[in-house]
Amino acid sequence: MVLPLTGIKFKKLGNNYIKQPFRWERGDKKGLTIQQEDIQTFIKLGLTALQANVYLTIVKAGKATAKKISENTQIDRADTYRIIIKLQDLGLIKKIVSTPTAFTATPLQDALQMLLEHKIHEIDEIKAETKKLLEKRREYDAQPHEETEVNQFILLPSKEPLIQSTKKAIRKAQKTIDVFSPLTIAQKGIATYAEDLSEAGQRGVVIRVIVEKPSESTPSPKAMQTLFENQSFKHLFVPKNTGQRFIIIDKKEAFFAIDPNHNATESPALWTGNSALLVTIMDYFETIWNLTANQKNA
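Above: the chain's sequence. Below: its structure in C-alpha coordinate form.
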Protein backbone atom coordinates (compact mmCIF):
# COMPACT_ATOMS: atom_id res chain seq x y z
CA MET A 1 0.00 0.00 0.00
CA VAL A 2 1.28 3.48 -0.92
CA LEU A 3 -0.17 6.50 0.89
CA PRO A 4 -1.38 8.70 -1.98
CA LEU A 5 0.42 12.01 -2.42
CA THR A 6 3.09 11.06 0.10
CA GLY A 7 5.23 8.41 -1.52
CA ILE A 8 5.28 6.52 1.80
CA LYS A 9 4.77 2.86 1.07
CA PHE A 10 3.30 0.49 3.67
CA LYS A 11 3.03 -3.26 3.73
CA LYS A 12 0.29 -4.77 5.87
CA LEU A 13 1.47 -7.45 8.24
CA GLY A 14 -1.43 -8.82 10.29
CA ASN A 15 -3.15 -5.78 11.84
CA ASN A 16 -0.08 -3.57 11.44
CA TYR A 17 1.34 -1.51 8.60
CA ILE A 18 5.11 -1.55 8.13
CA LYS A 19 6.69 1.54 6.56
CA GLN A 20 8.80 0.89 3.47
CA PRO A 21 11.26 3.20 1.70
CA PHE A 22 10.06 6.49 0.23
CA ARG A 23 9.53 6.25 -3.53
CA TRP A 24 7.58 9.18 -4.98
CA GLU A 25 5.23 12.11 -4.36
CA ARG A 26 2.83 14.18 -6.47
CA GLY A 27 0.33 17.00 -6.15
CA ASP A 28 -3.47 16.99 -6.49
CA LYS A 29 -5.79 18.75 -8.90
CA LYS A 30 -6.27 21.67 -6.51
CA GLY A 31 -2.55 22.34 -6.28
CA LEU A 32 -2.21 21.08 -2.70
CA THR A 33 0.86 18.89 -2.44
CA ILE A 34 1.15 16.52 0.50
CA GLN A 35 4.82 15.67 0.80
CA GLN A 36 6.68 13.21 2.96
CA GLU A 37 7.89 16.02 5.23
CA ASP A 38 4.23 17.00 5.86
CA ILE A 39 3.54 13.52 7.15
CA GLN A 40 6.74 13.60 9.22
CA THR A 41 5.70 16.90 10.83
CA PHE A 42 2.43 15.38 12.00
CA ILE A 43 4.28 12.30 13.25
CA LYS A 44 6.52 14.55 15.36
CA LEU A 45 3.38 16.21 16.71
CA GLY A 46 2.01 12.84 17.87
CA LEU A 47 0.02 11.34 15.00
CA THR A 48 0.78 8.12 13.17
CA ALA A 49 1.57 8.22 9.45
CA LEU A 50 -1.86 6.74 8.63
CA GLN A 51 -3.67 9.24 10.87
CA ALA A 52 -1.79 12.12 9.27
CA ASN A 53 -2.60 10.85 5.79
CA VAL A 54 -6.33 10.53 6.55
CA TYR A 55 -6.44 14.01 8.07
CA LEU A 56 -4.58 15.62 5.14
CA THR A 57 -6.75 13.72 2.66
CA ILE A 58 -9.85 15.26 4.24
CA VAL A 59 -8.19 18.68 4.26
CA LYS A 60 -7.51 18.31 0.54
CA ALA A 61 -11.05 17.11 -0.25
CA GLY A 62 -12.85 19.65 1.94
CA LYS A 63 -15.19 16.89 3.04
CA ALA A 64 -15.26 13.16 2.37
CA THR A 65 -17.07 9.97 3.30
CA ALA A 66 -15.32 7.07 4.98
CA LYS A 67 -15.59 5.11 1.73
CA LYS A 68 -13.95 7.92 -0.26
CA ILE A 69 -11.21 8.34 2.37
CA SER A 70 -10.50 4.59 2.27
CA GLU A 71 -10.32 4.62 -1.53
CA ASN A 72 -8.07 7.68 -1.68
CA THR A 73 -5.70 6.51 1.02
CA GLN A 74 -5.83 2.79 0.15
CA ILE A 75 -6.33 2.03 3.83
CA ASP A 76 -8.69 -0.82 4.73
CA ARG A 77 -12.21 0.39 5.53
CA ALA A 78 -12.11 -1.01 9.08
CA ASP A 79 -8.80 0.72 9.76
CA THR A 80 -10.17 3.92 8.22
CA TYR A 81 -13.09 3.96 10.65
CA ARG A 82 -10.75 3.43 13.62
CA ILE A 83 -8.54 6.29 12.46
CA ILE A 84 -11.57 8.57 11.93
CA ILE A 85 -12.76 7.91 15.49
CA LYS A 86 -9.29 8.74 16.85
CA LEU A 87 -9.08 11.94 14.81
CA GLN A 88 -12.52 12.94 16.07
CA ASP A 89 -11.39 12.37 19.65
CA LEU A 90 -8.41 14.64 18.97
CA GLY A 91 -10.66 17.34 17.55
CA LEU A 92 -9.00 17.18 14.13
CA ILE A 93 -12.09 16.20 12.14
CA LYS A 94 -15.86 16.61 12.56
CA LYS A 95 -18.77 14.47 11.43
CA ILE A 96 -21.26 16.00 9.04
CA VAL A 97 -24.81 14.71 9.51
CA SER A 98 -25.68 13.67 5.98
CA THR A 99 -26.43 10.62 3.89
CA PRO A 100 -23.96 9.09 3.57
CA THR A 101 -22.07 10.40 6.61
CA ALA A 102 -19.21 12.66 5.66
CA PHE A 103 -16.33 14.24 7.53
CA THR A 104 -14.68 17.64 7.42
CA ALA A 105 -11.28 18.64 8.79
CA THR A 106 -10.39 21.25 11.35
CA PRO A 107 -8.48 24.00 9.48
CA LEU A 108 -4.82 23.13 9.11
CA GLN A 109 -3.55 26.10 11.11
CA ASP A 110 -5.89 25.33 14.01
CA ALA A 111 -5.04 21.63 13.90
CA LEU A 112 -1.31 22.27 13.99
CA GLN A 113 -1.73 24.71 16.88
CA MET A 114 -3.82 22.16 18.83
CA LEU A 115 -1.29 19.39 18.30
CA LEU A 116 1.62 21.68 19.16
CA GLU A 117 -0.05 22.82 22.41
CA HIS A 118 -0.77 19.19 23.27
CA LYS A 119 2.87 18.26 22.63
CA ILE A 120 4.10 21.18 24.76
CA HIS A 121 1.74 20.13 27.55
CA GLU A 122 3.00 16.57 27.24
CA ILE A 123 6.62 17.74 27.49
CA ASP A 124 5.77 19.88 30.54
CA GLU A 125 4.23 16.81 32.20
CA ILE A 126 7.34 14.76 31.41
CA LYS A 127 9.53 17.50 32.91
CA ALA A 128 7.40 17.55 36.07
CA GLU A 129 7.52 13.75 36.38
CA THR A 130 11.28 13.78 35.79
CA LYS A 131 11.72 16.40 38.51
CA LYS A 132 9.70 14.30 40.96
CA LEU A 133 11.74 11.21 40.12
CA LEU A 134 15.02 13.08 40.68
CA GLU A 135 13.74 14.46 43.99
CA LYS A 136 12.79 10.95 45.11
CA ARG A 137 16.23 9.73 44.14
CA ARG A 138 17.93 12.55 46.06
CA GLU A 139 15.82 11.73 49.12
CA TYR A 140 16.77 8.07 48.79
CA ASP A 141 20.48 8.87 48.38
CA ALA A 142 20.35 11.11 51.46
CA GLN A 143 19.12 8.24 53.64
CA PRO A 144 21.63 5.90 55.29
CA HIS A 145 21.87 2.55 53.55
CA GLU A 146 23.51 -0.64 54.61
CA GLU A 147 26.76 -1.17 52.76
CA THR A 148 26.53 -3.96 50.22
CA GLU A 149 28.89 -5.36 47.65
CA VAL A 150 26.37 -5.98 44.91
CA ASN A 151 27.73 -5.26 41.41
CA GLN A 152 31.31 -5.44 42.66
CA PHE A 153 32.68 -5.51 39.11
CA ILE A 154 31.46 -3.47 36.15
CA LEU A 155 33.08 -3.34 32.72
CA LEU A 156 33.06 0.20 31.34
CA PRO A 157 33.46 0.77 27.59
CA SER A 158 36.09 3.22 26.42
CA LYS A 159 35.55 6.88 25.60
CA GLU A 160 32.46 8.70 26.90
CA PRO A 161 31.04 6.13 29.39
CA LEU A 162 34.48 5.70 30.99
CA ILE A 163 35.20 9.44 31.05
CA GLN A 164 31.85 10.31 32.63
CA SER A 165 32.11 7.53 35.25
CA THR A 166 35.64 8.59 36.20
CA LYS A 167 34.68 12.28 36.37
CA LYS A 168 31.73 11.44 38.61
CA ALA A 169 33.95 9.42 40.96
CA ILE A 170 36.54 12.22 41.15
CA ARG A 171 33.84 14.79 41.90
CA LYS A 172 32.51 12.62 44.74
CA ALA A 173 35.97 12.02 46.25
CA GLN A 174 36.22 13.21 49.86
CA LYS A 175 39.68 12.17 51.10
CA THR A 176 42.06 10.56 48.63
CA ILE A 177 42.68 9.90 44.95
CA ASP A 178 45.58 7.59 44.10
CA VAL A 179 46.83 7.16 40.53
CA PHE A 180 49.34 4.69 39.13
CA SER A 181 50.15 4.97 35.44
CA PRO A 182 52.84 5.15 32.75
CA LEU A 183 53.83 8.76 32.13
CA THR A 184 52.56 9.19 28.56
CA ILE A 185 49.15 7.76 29.48
CA ALA A 186 49.02 9.74 32.73
CA GLN A 187 49.66 12.93 30.77
CA LYS A 188 46.61 12.38 28.59
CA GLY A 189 44.48 11.23 31.53
CA ILE A 190 45.38 14.20 33.71
CA ALA A 191 44.68 16.56 30.81
CA THR A 192 41.22 14.98 30.46
CA TYR A 193 40.42 15.20 34.18
CA ALA A 194 42.50 18.31 35.05
CA GLU A 195 39.55 20.51 36.03
CA ASP A 196 37.93 17.84 38.21
CA LEU A 197 41.26 16.96 39.88
CA SER A 198 41.97 20.63 40.53
CA GLU A 199 38.57 21.11 42.16
CA ALA A 200 39.12 17.98 44.26
CA GLY A 201 42.46 19.37 45.44
CA GLN A 202 40.84 22.70 46.33
CA ARG A 203 38.36 20.97 48.61
CA GLY A 204 41.17 19.17 50.43
CA VAL A 205 41.29 15.82 48.68
CA VAL A 206 44.86 14.43 48.75
CA ILE A 207 45.89 13.35 45.26
CA ARG A 208 48.89 11.04 44.88
CA VAL A 209 50.28 10.08 41.49
CA ILE A 210 53.03 7.57 40.71
CA VAL A 211 54.43 7.93 37.18
CA GLU A 212 57.65 7.45 35.30
CA LYS A 213 60.11 10.29 35.52
CA PRO A 214 59.79 12.45 32.40
CA SER A 215 62.77 12.72 30.11
CA GLU A 216 63.93 15.88 28.42
CA SER A 217 62.21 14.72 25.23
CA THR A 218 58.87 14.11 27.01
CA PRO A 219 58.32 17.05 29.38
CA SER A 220 55.26 17.15 31.61
CA PRO A 221 52.29 18.89 29.98
CA LYS A 222 51.00 22.19 31.35
CA ALA A 223 47.99 20.53 33.04
CA MET A 224 50.27 18.16 34.97
CA GLN A 225 52.71 20.93 35.91
CA THR A 226 49.83 23.02 37.26
CA LEU A 227 48.64 20.13 39.42
CA PHE A 228 52.19 19.50 40.65
CA GLU A 229 52.10 23.01 42.15
CA ASN A 230 48.88 22.28 44.08
CA GLN A 231 49.58 21.58 47.77
CA SER A 232 47.07 18.71 47.80
CA PHE A 233 48.79 17.07 44.83
CA LYS A 234 51.70 14.75 45.59
CA HIS A 235 53.70 12.82 43.04
CA LEU A 236 56.59 10.41 42.87
CA PHE A 237 58.59 9.27 39.89
CA VAL A 238 59.56 5.64 39.36
CA PRO A 239 62.23 4.47 36.90
CA LYS A 240 59.78 2.49 34.78
CA ASN A 241 56.14 1.38 34.64
CA THR A 242 55.46 -1.84 32.76
CA GLY A 243 51.93 -0.80 31.78
CA GLN A 244 49.83 -1.12 34.93
CA ARG A 245 47.43 1.74 35.47
CA PHE A 246 44.61 2.33 37.88
CA ILE A 247 42.94 5.05 39.92
CA ILE A 248 41.60 4.51 43.44
CA ILE A 249 39.00 6.85 44.96
CA ASP A 250 38.75 7.16 48.78
CA LYS A 251 40.01 3.56 49.04
CA LYS A 252 36.43 2.52 48.26
CA GLU A 253 36.36 2.13 44.48
CA ALA A 254 38.86 1.72 41.68
CA PHE A 255 39.15 1.80 37.90
CA PHE A 256 41.59 -0.61 36.21
CA ALA A 257 42.58 -0.22 32.55
CA ILE A 258 42.20 -3.50 30.68
CA ASP A 259 44.27 -2.73 27.58
CA PRO A 260 47.78 -1.44 28.38
CA ASN A 261 48.34 -0.39 24.77
CA HIS A 262 45.77 2.40 24.73
CA ASN A 263 45.59 5.73 26.52
CA ALA A 264 43.49 6.61 29.55
CA THR A 265 40.22 7.09 27.69
CA GLU A 266 40.58 4.63 24.80
CA SER A 267 40.97 1.47 26.86
CA PRO A 268 37.94 -0.21 28.45
CA ALA A 269 38.18 -0.26 32.24
CA LEU A 270 37.01 -2.49 35.05
CA TRP A 271 35.33 -0.68 37.93
CA THR A 272 35.26 -2.40 41.31
CA GLY A 273 34.11 -1.73 44.81
CA ASN A 274 35.27 -5.13 46.05
CA SER A 275 36.90 -4.54 49.44
CA ALA A 276 39.27 -7.53 49.24
CA LEU A 277 40.65 -6.46 45.88
CA LEU A 278 40.89 -2.84 47.00
CA VAL A 279 42.96 -3.82 50.04
CA THR A 280 45.35 -5.73 47.77
CA ILE A 281 45.77 -2.94 45.25
CA MET A 282 46.10 -0.30 47.99
CA ASP A 283 48.85 -2.35 49.63
CA TYR A 284 50.62 -2.50 46.26
CA PHE A 285 50.29 1.26 45.77
CA GLU A 286 51.48 2.04 49.32
CA THR A 287 54.46 -0.29 48.93
CA ILE A 288 55.59 1.40 45.69
CA TRP A 289 54.92 4.84 47.20
CA ASN A 290 56.90 4.17 50.39
CA LEU A 291 59.83 2.48 48.59
CA THR A 292 60.10 5.33 46.10
CA ALA A 293 59.81 7.96 48.83
CA ASN A 294 62.54 6.27 50.89
CA GLN A 295 64.86 6.08 47.87
CA LYS A 296 64.20 9.74 47.16
CA ASN A 297 65.12 10.72 50.73
CA ALA A 298 68.13 8.41 50.93
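Residues 1-13, 17-32 have pLDDT under 50 and may be disordered.
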